[in-house]
Amino acid sequence: MSRAVHPGRPSERALLTDPVRYPESAQSQVRTKRAFMLLLLTLLIPGSAQIVAGDRRLGRRVLRVTLTVWLLVIAAVVVALVNRQILVTLFTNEWLSLVLIVVLVLLALGWAFLFLNTLRIIRPPLLDRGMRPAVAGSLALLMLLTSGSLGYGAYLLNVGRNTFGSIFQAGPAFDPVEGRYNFLLMGGDAGEDRTGRRPDSISVVSVDAESGATVTFSIPRDFQNAPFSEGSPLWEVWPDGYNCGNECIINSLYPVVTQEYADLYPEAQDPGAEAMMDAASGILGIEVQAYILVDMAGFEQLIDAMGGITIDAGGWVPITSTEIPGTVPKRYNPPSEWIAPGVQTLDGYHALWYARSREYATDYSRIRRQQCVQAAMIAQLDPATVLTRFQQIAAAGTQIVETDIPRDQLGSFVDLALKAKNHDVGRLTIGAPDFGEPGDLFSTYPDFDLIRQRVQETLAAASPVASGGSASPDAHGVLGADRVAFTQALPAQTATGEITEEYLHQLAVNQDWATLESLLADNGECTPA
After folding, report:
1. pTM, full prediction
2. Which of 23, 131, 351, 508 is the most buried (most CB within 10 A)?
3. Contact, 104 vs 152, CB < 8 A?
């Protein structure tokens, strides 16, 4: 039955001829424009299409939700500009992130429902046959753009939530010591020829709690006589320091404590790591508060997940082959491959070898390469990389990273890491050439008063007050005259470009190790590219 219209009611007659709400009497071009207009309204202002052409009650409810979401987004932007730590904490907190995941899922489902409701309002049978696929395709694309993005955001947030829960521990937050947070960073290696895991890469990362200015102190793996404070449980075992000779190099402390003295750290999940923190604190004269242990066996997975890293290598680095039996010191058969100097994009396999290769080079060169790889990872782990490769990075992280950093403090440390990217990284190696010269016995008989003095000088040089707001030591850290003499001693031919992989390989075949060690003395030179 047709609806009767009273001739004295012009407003009702106009309502029936409104092409937006009543498209039946409109021309085909108007219906097409109406369809795309309603889709655009649902995209930009969800709920507005229902108010102008559909269920107004539903539209008003959705519009209130839309305005609330926009207000929250604006508030989040303001918070990010004023104090982004609060925002980071929201995303990393176990329960708040769960609430956010649920909200994102509900918004994704609600927006998808709204687009389907808009399609009902459009009434596809009223459209020309040729325009129906275009409208349907546009709706599907917009649903993927909106609901799909929200759903993917919820998925990434859930992956991050699970990752953080697997890596970081529950526990009380800790305060900075003298304005700095000090973390022990170790690269652990549990090879078949070893008893337990040994941290071959040992460094303390000291970060200014306000500015993020960072200094890295590298400790050679063969460092001896590490002292312990009277407050350390290890004071009872080694009151005169870890000084039982060549067996007591610092990287052996981890497995020794894990296997023989774990009861000294009854509440620790990793007694070996706690012992290494005590040793690093005693060596440097600063309090190390937390540790991060990276399993080197899975290190290449993380690099691959990042899409590789780019460095500017200063010298040739061998990928070591098998050991020659009975050689003292250890010697190896000719390398199977070489990493050439210059700008290189390294995948996980080559980055791992670049960081750990030790043949024909000093421990100092190896430490420098490890520092360079660490700096490259920090510099190149940008937001675009994290978003596009988040799942792979998270999966690799749960397999290779162990830490005692409390989860509730993760937000503040992520914010601090973002600040650290604005500063150069100061570096000091607790061994040659920063202390003594390559080949001497400083790591065997260290001068701890001198070490602690240089540590404080390096921290002072890296402070924002000392450097005018940015830590800016030279590219190699605070090194002094020892490093200048070391650099001047490099063979001149390394600068000529005449060295080739074939030439180096032939030297290795000839077992001309002295020449190889001379030519490769600069292979610790490296900068992130």
Report:
1. 0.67
2. 351
3. no
